[in-house]
Design a protein that fits this description.
heterodimer; A: about 550 residues; alpha+beta; Sulfite Reductase Hemoprotein, domain 2; Sulfite Reductase Hemoprotein, domain 1; 4 domains; six-stranded mixed β-sheet; five-stranded antiparallel β-sheet; 21 strands; about 15% strand; B: about 180 residues; alpha/beta; TIM Barrel; 8 strands
């Protein structure tokens, strides 16, 4: 992974000093709340329902075991012992004292971490594929490019006060696992016929109140121009994005308003002025960064020694076999696999990890996976380099720490925002809905029978829980001070990213498990062999599911709202 | 009165008078606005409306223009070398359009005169403002301009190439 040099360290330490000064001025009454707000947001600090919330950056979701132990220490020392991993691969703490934040930032800086630009109207933490560097379908490793972009966007002087937040995701594989089409700027690594690296660039994607799929700006942007092109694109947005209404201020609204072709033309025109300028990337810099993401010292296992199937047969344990099936993923190196440590154990909030779990995950990384971990945008942790021979030991240890629920990609692997229990933006709670669904679908045989199903829950239109992308999406809405839940069907992430459709009027919280179950029964009754839920929905359309959802359900009696 | 203008890293007196135009002013209003004698900062729209009459005063160094966030710098691009000073307005500090305006003035239109940030700015914006090409900052009354001055050196190094340091760190790091 990338290690800071003296300059990177000095920059992050300067930020800690700067924020300490700003916090002291705020606490001394020399800085108003309005003036302090954008400053604290650009350091990840929100004022929330119960206490300030601090969102710490995990750049492109990559963590060393030392960094995770530091996050665990901070969680234990300054919070109530539980952290929440987010869909931007970051970690949030919900019970932080404002006056302690500079000390936390200082502790983060000691392990080359920070909370820079994890919120606010600026370029946010860049996200990528959790299997970067080990995926069999990888065209090129996205991590060096994510780090190059991290440095470019860190304290970018022109783009600290954009119309609204700006999110970037990058995918290096054939199968997009980074949801690049629902980002303000989505980058897909590609190779041209000459084998040279470049990017297909998408812009104007996003969820929120107006969910839109990103539009292609350019087919092949040679890598040298990544920064100048991005600078041109964000500059056009900074100058012409709407600032009169925060709900219409994202780049997607600008792209939609003037059309993606016209927007791309304006970006191109701007880019021609700065193309080949000093911010053009050099092969030396790319090599310097890429060297830090070199593969670890893999052991040479013969290609045919073991397969996941042979390991399952050898141990003959149904629970272990299920874990192998759902939580263990292919690796480009023979004899290695990636392991997802599930943070979706029933009884705990999705994405939450306790101090003990963080420490256990760090220990597993040290013992079995070269001391590194990844955070996924589905809010789980991943050990990417586990030898096949250690899988059983990892499973046992993970199980002892409540990190081995064999539910990755199943209905129980829900993406869920913190919702109204914590977040002051939320219209409704999301955690009790997730808990009720976990309870209803607790039977592992049933979950496995249902198979692949993405169920995502957001507590408000800001869509932190990516409900639009769920095969089933649940959105909390406020109706006259009451919490209601709207259901969407047919969303998808990845290459075929698609925004789900609202099925009709919303439901009361207590109805949700029944509604989900009736729709699942419809799927089970009508599916073709090996057909996933989302494919059955695509084949049959919404009507049979809508009919099932509203059957025996006259009580909801609310007008539809879209 | 305390000095509130920072220029070239020092607090100095401000000798410019500001000539304002109503928000909804038309080009006709701009053409009719009287410009008093002496150094004057006029809205860019007034410059466009009274260009011929004001050209000699501009050449004598008495005319500066101020650019509202919505004003497209392209529209005065051909005249920028005539101005002794260009002021970029920040009615709200969270409106960052002026940062792009400043870079375009310096990098695209080769403006070398005083570039002044005015409006709702303070010490927490100065570092970024300096980086995009501002060399003067009018700190609002009531704010400690001397303290603000210190923040120009908040960071010892920067990653991106911009106006104050055109070379990104990666072109300097290996040196």
């Amino acid at each position: 992974m990338y290690h800071y040099d003296a300059t990177d360290k000095a920059i992050v330490q300067a930020r800690v000093r700067q924020f300490r000064g700003q916090t002291e001025r705020f606490l001394a009454g020399q800085l108003s709340e309005d003036d302090f707000r954008p400053l604290r947001l650009q350091n990840g600090l929100y004022i929330q329902r119960h206490a300030p919330m601090l969102r710490m950056a995990i750049p492109y979701g990559l963590l060393s075991s030392t960094q995770l132990r530091t996050l665990a220490d901070i969680t234990g020392r300054y919070d109530r012992g539980t952290g929440h991993f987010t869909t931007r691969q970051n970690l949030q703490l919900n019970w932080i004292e404002l006056s302690k934040v500079p000390d936390i930032l200082e502790q983060l800086a000691s392990v080359e971490m920070h909370a820079i630009q994890t919120s606010g109207n600026c370029i946010r933490n860049i996200t990528t594929d959790q299997f970067a560097g080990i995926a069999e379908d990888e065209i090129a490793d996205p991590r060096p490019w994510a780090e190059v972009l991290r440095q470019w966007s860190t304290f970018h002087p022109e783009f600290a006060y954009l119309p609204r937040k700006f999110k970037v995701a990058i995918s290096g594989s054939l199968d997009d696992r980074a949801a690049i089409r629902v980002h303000d700027l989505g980058l897909q690594l590609v190779k041209n016929d000459a084998g040279e690296i470049g990017f297909t660039v998408y812009a104007g994607g996003g969820l929120g109140r107006t969910p839109l799929i990103g539009q292609k700006m350019i087919d092949f942007l040679p890598w040298q121009h990544l920064l100048t092109y991005s600078e041109a694109l964000v500059r056009v947005y900074n100058r012409y994005g709407r600032r009169d209404n925060p709900y219409k201020a994202r780049i997607k609204i600008l792209v939609k308003a003037i059309g993606s072709e016209e927007f791309a033309r304006q970006v191109e025109e701007e880019w021609l002025h700065i193309k080949d300028g000093p911010n053009t990337l050099t092969a030396e810099e790319v090599a310097r960064v890429a060297n830090q993401f070199a593969s670890p010292a893999y052991a040479a296992y013969p290609a045919s020694t073991s397969t996941l199937a042979s390991i399952a047969t050898q141990h003959n344990d149904k629970a272990f076999s299920r874990w192998l099936e759902r939580n263990v993923h292919a690796h480009k190196m023979p004899g290695y696999a990636a392991v997802t440590l599930s943070l979706k154990t029933p009884g705990a909030a999705p994405g939450d990890a306790t101090v003990a779990q963080m420490e256990a995950a760090a220990a597993l990384a040290d013992e079995f996976s070269f001391g590194e971990l990844r955070v996924t945008h589905e809010q789980n942790l991943v050990l990417v380099d586990v030898p096949h021979k250690d899988l059983h030991a990892v499973w046992q240890r993970a199980k002892a720490s409540g990190l081995a629920s064999a539910n990755i990609g199943l209905l129980a692997d829900m993406i869920v925002c913190p919702g109204g229990d914590f977040c002051s933006l939320a219209n409704a709670k999301s955690l009790p809905i997730a808990a009720a669904i976990h309870e209803r679908f607790a039977d592992m045989d049933y979950l496995f029978d249902i198979g692949d199903l993405e169920l995502n829950i957001s507590g408000c239109m800001n869509s932190c829980g990516h409900h639009h992308l769920g095969a089933i999406g649940i959105l909390g809405v406020d109706k006259h001070g009451e919490e209601w839940y709207q259901i969407t069907l047919g969303g998808a992430q990845g290459n075929a990213a698609r925004i789900g459709e609202v099925i009709g009027r919303s439901f009361a919280a207590a109805e949700i498990p029944d509604v989900i179950e009736r729709m699942i029964e419809t799927y089970l009754a009508q599916r073709h062999a090996d057909e996933a839920f989302k494919d059955t929905v695509a084949r049959l359309g919404l009507p049979p599911f809508r009919e099932a959802a509203y059957r025996n359900n006259e009580s909801a009696g609310e007008a539809a709202h879209g | 009165m305390a000095k509130q203008l920072i220029k070239n890293d020092q607090l100095i007196d401000d000798n410019w008078q500001v000539i304002a135009l109503a928000d909804e002013a038309t080009l006709e209003d701009a053409a009719a606005l009287p410009i008093p004698a002496g150094p004057a900062i006029i809205p860019a729209l007034v410059w466009l409306a009274q260009r011929d009459a004001l050209r000699s005063r501009a050449d004598a160094g008495d005319i500066a223009v101020s650019l509202a966030p919505t004003f497209r710098v392209e529209d005065i691009a051909q005249d920028v070398q005539r101005f002794a000073m260009i002021a970029v307005e920040f009615p709200k500090f969270i409106d960052g359009r002026g940062y792009s305006t400043a870079r375009l003035l310096r990098e695209r239109y080769a403006y070398r005169g005083e570039l002044r940030a005015v409006g709702n700015i303070g010490r927490d914006q100065l570092f970024y403002l300096k980086r995009v090409g501002f060399d003067a900052f009018l700190i609002p009354p009531g704010q400690d301009a001397a303290a603000a001055l210190q923040s120009l050196n908040d960071f010892p190094e920067v990653y991106q190439g911009a106006v104050d340091q055109p070379l990104p760190l990666f072109r300097r790091r290996t040196a």
